[in-house]
UniProtKB/TrEMBL annotation:
Residues making up the signal peptide according to the UniProt record: 1-20
Residue ranges constituting the FAS1 domain according to the UniProt record: 37-175, 177-313, 315-447
Pfam families: Fasciclin
Keyword Signal part of the UniProt annotation: yes
Keywords, in A-Z order: Signal
Domain of life, per lineage: Bacteria
Name of protein: Fasciclin
One Gene Ontology cellular component annotation held by this UniProt entry: extracellular space
InterPro entries found in the cross-reference section: Adhesion/Biosynth-related, FAS1_dom_sf, FAS1_domain
The UniProt record lists the keyword Protein transport: no
Length: 449
């Protein structure tokens, strides 16, 4: 009996051991660890002070995008107090009162592509994920790390909250996409420009989203140099003084750096009933009127794009147009030798048919001389005045016929049947470069009386 009981006990124990082993195997399967997600959205959802942000992300469907573990983001995350302040500023009671499209744009304006910890963030402009006014370009934000501010609006109050797909920096205000005027106001480096725009009553025009502009924005040092050269202060200049200068820095449409090309472009500054021309030269960098350099490009605003420049450019006279273009250096030498610079810098208006350096070289070869110094002043004066017509005559206003020049013994024969041709053989190769006191048409030969 004892032997039977002992065998039975052994069998039972073995059964228990086998069952326990099987159970352990099953438990091992159940205990396989599933790695927890810790995306930016997870981190925000785990912090009660980001509950409104999470609600906003969910309502716009951006939560899935920011939970993408295959991407990397830097998020400037507004606190609940920041959102409460925004709602109060907008005069609305909840996020539901903000159109979804607008809220999406605002939220994406807080997101940069790629992970940038606090030590990697420097003062400057950053492209957000919020769409700009032209496809392929996103809105810019300005971060000032000296003041630890974004757009001179939101303070960065905590940094480097790491997630699996990026990093979060906490801010105390919701940042809003900015217009051209908004960018000028937000960056202390443009404070002189902002003051001038305000004094000229142009702030509203450059704030409007109904039009799109490209602005070449002078930095403060550029304005300081201009005022010093003029011997005045900003207070000494009236709105009428400032308006043509400021509008000379504005071009219609959205022109990013990649699309900038050498040539003349019409600005919004009025001259002789037309738009004053701005010369753009693309080489190692971009220069305006041969003296002002583009130092920062592609600051994208809601209504256009800004390129910062290091010198204020002013609307040119016909003489300035020649001075600013190296291809007219021989013409300038001739004007100086003939003492015509002051005359053609006068009130005008003048229409100038301007020969290129190559045109003068051909003339010198034909005359078997080396340059303007080999031509007597009286002859040179008559030649130059043969290139000038009274009035501001655009190419579209030219017609077939004889036109008197400022040299009383020379009229030029104009033919517009196939382009603009002078005296049967001289071609206008570039037309309608508009100055303050007249207009310039570039020609490929020198007009000889």
């Amino acid at each position: 009996m004892k032997k039977v009981s002992f065998k039975l006990m052994m069998i039972l124990l073995m059964g228990v051991f086998v069952m326990a082993s099987c159970s352990d195997d099953e438990n091992d399967d159940d205990d396989v660890m599933v790695e927890e997600s810790n995306t930016i959205v997870d981190v925000a959802a785990g912090n009660p002070d980001f509950s409104i942000l999470v609600e906003a992300l969910q309502s716009t469907g951006l939560d899935d995008a920011l939970a993408n573990e295959g991407a990397s983001f830097t998020v400037f995350a507004p606190t609940n107090d920041a959102f409460a302040s925004l709602l109060n500023e907008l005069g609305v009671s909840s996020l539901e009162d903000i159109p979804s499209e607008t809220l999406t744009s605002v939220l994406l304006y807080h997101v940069l592509s790629g992970e940038a910890t606090a030590s990697q963030v420097e003062s400057g402009y950053y492209s957000t994920l919020s769409d700009g006014p032209q496809e392929g370009y996103t809105l810019s934000m300005y971060i000032n790390m000296e003041d630890v501010m974004i757009n001179n609006r939101a303070g960065i109050i905590d940094t480097d909250i790491l997630a699996d797909n990026g990093v979060i920096h906490v801010i105390d205000q919701v940042i809003l996409p900015m217009s051209i005027t908004g960018h000028a106001v937000a960056n202390e480096g443009f404070s002189s420009l902002a003051a001038a725009v305000t004094k000229a009553n142009l702030a509203d025009a450059l704030d409007s989203d109904e039009v799109t502009y490209t602005v070449f924005a002078p930095v403060n040092s550029a304005f300081e140099a201009l005022l010093t050269n003029l011997g005045v202060t900003l207070d000494d200049l009236t709105a009428d003084d400032l308006t043509p200068i400021l509008l000379y820095h504005v071009v219609d449409g959205f022109v990013p750096a990649a699309d900038v090309a050498s040539g003349y472009v019409p600005t919004l500054s009025s001259a002789q009933g037309r738009q004053a021309s701005l010369q753009v030269t693309v080489g190692d960098g971009v220069a305006l009127n041969s003296s002002s350099n583009v130092v920062v490009t592609d600051v994208v605003a809601t209504n256009g794009i800004i390129h910062a420049i290091d010198e204020v450019v002013t609307p040119p006279s016909v003489v300035d147009i020649a001075l600013d273009n190296s291809d007219f250096s021989t013409l300038v030498d001739a004007l100086v030798r003939a003492d015509l610079v002051d005359a053609l810098s006068g009130e005008g208006p003048f229409t100038v048919f301007a020969p290129t350096n190559a045109a003068f070289d051909d003339l010198f070869s034909a005359l078997e001389v080396t340059g303007v110094d080999d031509i007597d002043v009286a002859t040179l004066t008559n030649v130059l005045l043969s290139h000038v017509v009274s009035g501001n005559v655009a190419s579209t206003d030219l017609s077939n016929g004889s036109v008197p020049t400022l040299y009383s013994e020379k009229s030029i024969e104009i033919n517009v049947d196939n382009g603009v041709v002078i005296d049967g053989q001289i071609n206008v190769v570039l037309a309608d470069v508009q100055g303050t006191n007249g207009i310039v048409h570039v020609i490929d030969q020198v007009i000889v009386p």
